Amino acid sequence: IICAGLKRAGSTLQYQLCKEILHKNYSIIDYGYTNNHKDISRAFKNKNDHECNIIKTHGFFNILKDYSKEKDVYILSSYRDLRDSSLSQIFAYKKTFSQLIKSEWLQDEMKTYYKLKKIENLLMQDFDVLKQDLKVSIFQISKYLNIKLDEGTAIKIANNFNIKSQKQKIKKYTKTKKYKYINFLNKIIKRVIPASLLQAGLILNIDKSTYLHHNHINSQKVDWQNFYSIAQKEEIKSIISDWLIELGYEKDANW
Predict the structure, then answer these.
(1) Among candidates 253, 244, 240, which has minimal Cα distance to 104?
(2) Are 237 and 254 in contact, with CB atoms under 8 Å apart?
(3) What would the pLDDT profile of 110-156 be if each residue is shown by its tens digit?
């Protein structure tokens, strides 16, 4: 099982739900998140040694397309209105709008979406559904994986991964010695070598039991309509307008 969603689009939640559902029927080997192709290759090399393997990534989509043709391989992905995910990116990683545009983040996410759409046997879930209707999302995943779930089990899983529960897990992790130690190291590293990786540092500060990091869920309740200026909206429109219409987020370019 490979979870390979767009960034800031609910891919970790999808991965968590997938693991929870798989646990009902299988013993699984969890490879966690990787940005290294070798980890994916290793998972595939060993896939017949276990009942089920699962791994999460944000890349290697051309390779995943080849893997998807193999027997008993399932690939899940998620997408989100890029106006929302770009704002989430800005808040989570303390980016400026100028940095977002110069890095071509919007273009890269669109390219990722189209690469994923070329993969056969893919479950693509909308972030809004993942966030707002966990039970529906859980049944979508279980149906895709051919795993039968009853209503009660689906509700229990949903309760364990609702927004309140996720925030509690993040809060618990930020109180651990591991989090505080890595956070301290990253602050020192930033002073010496300015970086812009996942945690704006050189060490991933992530809870390996949940694969949530401290800024996984934005605390700011700001929407893109009120955050972006008119000029910024026009610049975004010039890049993703057709994509928004294609996915049904807008009827036309008059937004």
Answers:
(1) 240
(2) no
(3) 999 999 999 988 999 999 999 999 999 999 999 999 999 999 999 99
Torsion over CA of 13, 15, 20 and 22, rounded to 10 degrees?
150
Determine which helix (DSSP H) or strand (DSSP E) holds 43, and give its type and residue range: helix 37-45
For 19-47, write each residue's pLDDT tens digit: 999 998 898 999 999 888 888 888 888 77
How many DSSP H helices and E strands does the chain contain? 13, 7
pTM of the model: 0.87
Burial 37-47 (b: 16+ CB within 10 A, else e): eebbeebbeeb
Distance, in Å, from the CA atom of 90 to the CA atom of 8, rounded to the nearest integer, reads: 10
Nearest to 129 by CA among 251, 4, 9, 1: 9
| Residue 139 · residue 86 · CB < 8 Å | no
Q: Which of 89, 125, 146 is nearest to 14 (CA)?
A: 125
Q: What is the pLDDT of residue 200?
A: 47
| Cβ–Cβ < 8 Å for 95, 114 | no
Residue 69 vs residues 11, 72, 111, 165: alpha-carbon distances, Å: 22, 9, 21, 36
Contact between 192 and 214 under an 8 Å Cβ cutoff? The reply is no
pLDDT tens sequence across 224-238:
999 999 999 999 999
